[in-house]
């Protein structure tokens, strides 16, 4: 029985994209000269890091709910 639904797959994919944006922002900020500027890169990091965690949690929660059905 597969627990991966289209909803959980979408959430997991969005979580991956968000986490990649967060890691990229960290690398950009650590380089000293971010291409988008420090403020924009910091805003991207501040939004994408918790968003990635929330989307991952939502994907796991959705998969667990579908597993019990």
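^ structure tokens above, recovered residues below v
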């Amino acid at each position: 029985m597969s627990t991966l639904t289209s909803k959980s797959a979408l959430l997991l994919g969005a979580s991956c994209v968000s986490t990649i944006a967060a890691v990229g922002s960290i690398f950009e900020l650590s380089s000293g000269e971010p291409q988008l500027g420090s403020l924009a890169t910091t805003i991207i990091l501040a939004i994408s890091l918790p968003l990635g965690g929330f989307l991952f949690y939502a994907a796991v929660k959705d998969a667990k709910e579908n597993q019990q059905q």
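Residues 45 and 64 are 29 Å apart (CA to CA).
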